[in-house]
Design brief:
Elements lengths: L1 E5 L5 E7 L2 H15 L15 H8 L1 H23 L9 E7 L2 E8 L3 E3 L17 H15 L2 E3 L9 E10 L2 E11 L12 H5 L7 E7 L13 E14 L6 H5 L8 H35 L1 E3 L2 H21 L4 H8 L3 H28 L6 H13 L5 H7 L3 H24 L9 H7 L32
Antiparallel strand pairs: 1-2, 2-4, 3-4, 5-11, 6-10, 7-8, 7-10, 9-10
Helix pairs in contact: 1-3, 4-7, 7-13, 8-10, 10-13, 11-12, 11-13
């Protein structure tokens, strides 16, 4: 075998490999054993024809072609070992000749990453403070969420839960046809059309009202943008919340119950503090990573960047197809060609790869690892928090891919924590997943008693269509 190196660099090497018939022989023999079971040679039972007959019938080139799938990668693996080279990812292969076989392999090597002087990075943390106003706001939210919806014998006010029949036409075309929907009007609610909620204020149960609203120019559906919508509303019912007194009895009804308002208030203050500290830590990690990326230098094969772009493109393509769209339709919708869209994704792919390489280097330098016990502990924690779906969760986490994903997530968490420790000049062990979970509130606020009725999402986000939204 003749091996020559071209374009040798610290991050990439091109190998030209020429095989001799002697090199090929073991692979051709394996190829014969595979082929003989699939071809029909007259006079021989399946799989029993001698190699000489098979080669005579099919030609040596057919045996070589069959062998390429394992001949080239196995030969390359041996060459890499002989040359003491470690491929960072799958090399790019090109067959040059078939008799004898020769091929070219462009091999991306381990990227060269210099993290720079991490001690020079400075982080500015804002002090963690929880005000009485924040505690009071959370108490009011708990108070509202715990109160049931009850019929209201009065005109509509903002914040009520309404049941409506809504019909709307735009340029003579029916655009809204909703019967018996729930809706919570808010003064500044832009959904479904800006101003819709304002016309509901003051209505009484059973009343009907007609009005016209302009559709914004930037509406998601271009055929409606800038036109007028004629709306007819029938108010079927009005409900309001009768808020409970903030007293010890109220405290006993929140979650598993608290002995007094003082105990509940203390709990809320501590939870807000924990959440603020958690947010401060996450922000410090992100700021530290951003600054580390600024001072780090990376030398890597262009192949690695190209593969990362391919990977990101494929992820986005799958996401588009999951929405039951084909790529041509999606690209037409965003007004870009495939090449233009790939170019748009390139900065994100580059940033993602740089982040991966920098954190990987830091993990190597700091000898940060995640062992099997930590992965299992994380899985157990997630299963225990899954409620009634524990069996399904256990099944989902039983695969090697799922465990590898959790291991990767835990490793990333450890590395980010260690980065902040280094920058802030701290030492000591890195938080375990259990400790990190204990520090992190479930959703940034305590869970309140469930209200009797669902609330509409219409108060927050405008819809893409001119019609009321409700849960």
């Amino acid at each position: 075998m003749n091996v020559t190196k071209d374009s040798v660099s610290p991050t990439e090497v091109t190998l030209n490999i020429e095989m001799t018939p002697e090199d090929e022989e073991p692979f051709v023999t394996r190829s014969y054993r595979r082929l003989v079971t699939r071809v029909n040679i007259p006079g021989f039972r399946p799989g029993k024809a001698p190699r000489s007959i098979v080669e005579q019938q099919l030609g040596r080139s057919a045996l070589i072609q069959e062998a390429l799938d394992f001949m080239v990668p196995e030969t390359l693996d041996q060459v890499l070992k002989d040359e003491n080279l470690q491929a960072f990812m799958e090399p790019q292969l090109e067959i040059l000749e078939m008799e004898p076989v020769s091929f070219k392999a462009v091999v991306p090597l381990e990227p060269v990453v210099d993290l720079g002087d991490m001690a020079s990075i400075e982080l500015e943390r804002q002090p963690v403070e929880v005000t009485d106003e924040q505690v009071d706001e959370l108490l009011e939210r708990l108070r509202f969420d715990s109160a049931p919806w009850e019929p209201a014998d009065r005109p509509v006010q903002f914040g009520d839960l309404l049941t409506l029949n809504v019909h709307g036409t735009i340029a003579g075309e029916e655009a809204i046809n909703d019967e018996g929907i729930d809706f919570i009007p808010q003064q500044d609610n832009p959904s479904p059309i800006p101003g819709f909620s304002i016309y509901l204020e003051g209505m009484t149960e059973g009343q009907e009202k007609e009005f016209t609203l302009p559709i914004p120019e930037d509406h998601g559906q271009e055929q409606y943008a800038g036109k007028d919508c004629s709306v007819k509303v029938e108010l079927l019912s009005i409900k309001e919340k009768i808020l409970p007194e903030l007293d010890d009895e109220f405290a006993k009804g929140v979650r598993d119950g608290y002995e007094s308002m003082e105990a509940l208030t203390s709990f809320l203050r501590q939870q807000l503090t924990d959440h603020a500290e958690h947010a401060s830590n996450r922000q410090a990690e992100q700021d530290g990573l951003d600054k580390l990326l600024e001072i780090s230098t990376i030398q890597a094969s262009q192949m690695i960047y190209d593969r990362e772009l391919d990977s990101l493109y494929e992820e986005r393509e799958r996401s588009v197809r999951n929405q039951r769209l084909d790529m041509d339709t999606y690209l037409s919708y965003i007004g870009k060609s495939e090449e233009e869209w790939r170019e748009q994704l390139k900065p994100q792919a580059d940033q993602r790869l740089r982040t991966f390489l920098v954190l990987r280097k830091l993990a190597q330098d700091e000898e940060i690892e995640v062992d099997t016990d930590e992965v299992q502990t994380e899985i157990d924690t997630m299963i225990n928090q899954s409620g009634e779906s524990q069996d399904a969760m256990r099944q989902a986490f039983s695969s090697d891919n799922a465990k590898d994903s959790i291991r990767s997530s835990l490793l990333s968490r450890k590395v980010m924590q260690r980065l902040v420790e280094i920058i802030e000049g701290r030492s000591g062990s890195i938080e375990t997943s259990e400790e990190a979970d204990a520090d992190e509130p479930d959703a940034g606020e305590p869970e309140a008693v469930e209200p009797d009725s669902v609330e509409s999402e219409a108060a927050s986000e405008p819809s893409n269509e001119p019609e009321p939204e409700a849960e």
